[in-house]
Amino acid sequence: MEIWNLFTDFIVQSITFFTHEVGVSQAAAIILFTVIGRLVLMPINLVAMANMVRNKKAIAALKPELDSIKSNYKDQPSEIAKLTMALYKKHNIKFIDKKSVINMASQGVFGLGTFQALQQIVLNSKFAWITSIAKPDIALSLLVGAITYLSMMMMPGSAEQTSTLLFLIPAIICVVTLVNFPSAIGLYWATSSSTSLLQSLLVNKYFKNHQPQHAL
C-alpha cells in the first residue's frame, strides 16, 4: 500500500537524516530513532500499562468471591466461566478495551515498519563489539532475548503465578529469529524492549504505594 510505503520511507529517511545530518553512526541512528518513536507512543502505552495494574489489583480484591465460585461450581466449568465474567463485568474489569487495542496496534505498526525499513538500508556501521550491523550477532541476540524476558516478567499486571515458561518462549523465539537477521534489527529490538522494561519499572514503582480510584 502507498501509505505503508510512505511510512517505511519516512523511517528510512529519518535514520538517514540522523546519520548524514546529525553525524552519528547508523547503529546510533537506529537506537535514537527507536527511542524517539517509543517516546511518541509512550502516552498510550503508559495508559494501557496503568489499566493492566488496576485490573490486577481489582482481581486480587475479588479473590474470595472468585474462590467461592470455583468451590461452589467445581464440576461446572461453563458456569464458573459465566459467573466469573459476570463478576468482572460488574466491577468493570476489561482485559481487552479500546486503549489496549490501540496500544498493541501502534506498537505492532511501529515495529513492523522499522523491521521492513531496516532491510531497505545498506548497512555498514559498527557497534560496540559488533564489527558490522549488517550481519547477525549471537551475543546481541542472547542479550535481546534476556531483555525481552525481563520486560515481559516485569510487565504491569502480569500474575505472580504465571509460568516462567510463558515468559521464556517469546524470549527464545526472539533469539532464534535474530540470529538470522542483521544486528541492526537486534539493536532496534534491544532498544524497544529496554524502553518497555523501563516503562514497566516506572509504572510498577508508581502503583506500588498508590491505589488508583478510577481507570485512566
TrEMBL record:
Instruction: Indicate how the chain sits in the lipid bilayer.
Output: Multi-pass membrane protein
Look up keyword Membrane and say if it applies: yes
**InterPro entries hit by this protein:** YidC/ALB3/OXA1/COX18, YidC/Oxa/ALB_C
User: Does the record carry ATP-binding as a key word?
Assistant: no
Transmembrane ranges, per UniProt, are 27-48, 138-155, 167-190
- List keywords of the entry alphabetically: Membrane, Transmembrane, Transmembrane helix
Cell location:
Membrane
Please identify the protein, giving its name as recorded. Membrane insertase YidC/Oxa/ALB C-terminal domain-containing protein
Species: Pseudoalteromonas issachenkonii
Stretches assigned to the Membrane insertase YidC/Oxa/ALB C-terminal domain: 28-205
**What broad class describes the main subcellular location of this protein?**
membrane
